[in-house]
Amino acid sequence: MAVAYDERPGRAIQPFHAVLLAATIPLFLGGLLSDIAYTSTYQIQWSNFASWLIAGGVAFTGFALLWAFIDLIRADRRRGRPLIYFLLLLAAFGLGLINSFVHARDAWATMPEGLVLSAIVTVLAILATWLGFSSLRVGGMK
After folding, report:
1. Where does the sequence pass through the membrane (predicted)?
2. Which residue among 3, 7, 78, 128 sits deepest, i.e. has the most Cβ atoms within 10 Å of its Cβ?
3. What are the residue ranges spanned by the domains of the chain?
4. Side-chain half-sphere CA neighbours of 11 within 13 A
């Protein structure tokens, strides 16, 4: 069996980009958990927590999206992973922004749309983070 080795050096993820990307998961997950807590207790403060956490997640996603756009412009045209990564981040940013607007309403008016959007945005952020970290590996076997 022949093994081909990829001689091109892989690009490591930039540390600041990694921090921006990794920060999206706990913020959006915290927003989702706060929404779940609100649906079970109806304490308005949980809705306020979710609002702030989602706003923070949107801010970090926006900066990570900007960085991903720069990486997309510089990316090798043969690979589709930077485009998928960018589109996942774009979807997380767009739906996160809509979720932030939903959470700006009265606490009773945020449910159930806020909970559903929080779940979708959290899954998108996890997928984007996973793809962002997994596509930037150091060279290995093909």
Report:
1. 12-29, 49-70, 82-102, 114-133
2. 128
3. 15-134
4. 13
Q: Which residues pair with 5 in a beta bridge?
A: 141
- Report whether 133 contacts 10 (CB < 8 A): no
- Quick one: three-class SS letters along the chain? CCCCECCCCCCCCCHHHHHHHHHHHHHHHHHHHHHHHHHHHCCHHHHHHHHHHHHHHHHHHHHHHHHHHHHHHHCCCCCCHHHHHHHHHHHHHHHHHHHHHHHCCCCHHHCCHHHHHHHHHHHHHHHHHHHHHHCCCCCCEC
Q: Which single residue is written with the structure tokens 């980009």?
A: 17
